Amino acid sequence: MLSGGIDSTTTVAIAKAEGFQVYALSFRYGQRHVMELLAAQNIAAQFCVAAHDIIDIDLRRFGGSALTDNIAVPKNRPKGEMSGSIPVTYVPARNTIFLAFSLAWAEVLGSFDIFLGVNAIDYSGYPDCRPEYIEAFERMGRLATKVGTEGDGVLKVHTPLIRLSKKEIIQKGLSLGVDYSFTTSCYDPSPRGEACGKCDSCQLRLDGFRAVGIRDPIRYAG
After folding, report:
1. Residue 221: inside a domain
2. pLDDT of residue 122
3. What is the rounded distance in angstroms from the CA atom of residue 199 to the CA atom of residue 186?
4. From its phi and psi, is residue 107 left (phi > 0), alpha (psi between -120 and 50) or beta?
5. What phi-psi label fits residue 139: left (phi over 0), alpha (psi between -120 and 50 degrees) or beta?
6. Is 193 helix (H, G, I), strand (E, B) or coil?
7. pLDDT in tens, 185-206
8. In sequence order, what are the residues at sequence separation of 6 or more whose Cβ sits closer than 8 angstroms to the Cβ of residue 134?
């Protein structure tokens, strides 16, 4: 699952380093930061993935999120507030929907391995980024699929970043040669694609690069 951000890009690098043939899946779901798909395409090309597909799902039909509805994206929130409650940037059931598509494609490919760049430390309070959620989906996938019940392998949802800080994620990516200038993280970028530097995602990203001691290579507004 490739969004074009730091976490999913680092996850692709890890999967490649572990010897997996990578099939990348991205989603055009009505997100206000749809330019992340251009980043995902560039990253997929950079890593020479076996295939990269973009699925169209219009979650604007349901709304309920600052990413898919006419709701302001929170800016300049203290870090402690980010994980205190589920923010308005949470998209209802998004990871469940995305994982279901990933599960379907994996089954067709004959794959038992799904890689997901969720993180339970710097995760902005999203409930579908927690280890217990991933474990529950994995169990469901083993029960709900033909390959899970009749296949010769065991479905595994790999979450190599789930217990890493943003600093550790960036360090891991750099050690694998990831060029983070291709990535984007902003929830509310400018029309020219510049990151706002103020939303939760931008703040977590900037904190990570500061902790590593290097400059974030992407462009910011202002």
Report:
1. no
2. 67
3. 7
4. alpha
5. alpha
6. coil
7. 999 999 999 999 999 999 999 9
8. 116, 118, 157, 159, 162
**Separation of alpha carbons 102 and 8, rounded Å:** 14
Asked if residue 220 is part of any domain, the answer here is no
Cβ–Cβ under 8 Å, residues 203 and 195 = no
- Predicted TM-score of the model (pTM): 0.95
The reported pLDDT for the residue numbered 147 is 83
Structural domain harbouring 133: 6-212
Let me know: does 6 contact 161? Beta carbons within 8 Å.
no
165 within a domain of the structure (yes/no):
yes
Distances in Å between the Cα of 155 and the Cα atoms of 15, 52, 56 are 15, 21, 25
Total residue length of the chain: 222
Indicate the DSSP class of residue 164: -
Q: How far is CA 47 from CA 8, 9, 40, 104, 107, in A?
A: 12, 9, 11, 23, 23
Residue 218 lies in a domain: no
Structure tokens belonging to residue 54: 């973009």
Domain count, the chain: 1
Which CATH number covers residue 151? 3.40.50.620
Q: What is the DSSP letter of 33?
A: T
Rounded Cα gap, residues 186 and 150, in angstroms: 42
Q: In this predicted model, what pLDDT tens digit does every residue of 123-172 receive, in sequence order?
A: 567 899 999 999 999 999 999 999 888 878 899 999 999 999 999 999 99
* C-alpha dist (Å) from residue 171 to 9, 43, 80, 175, 205: 13, 18, 23, 6, 13
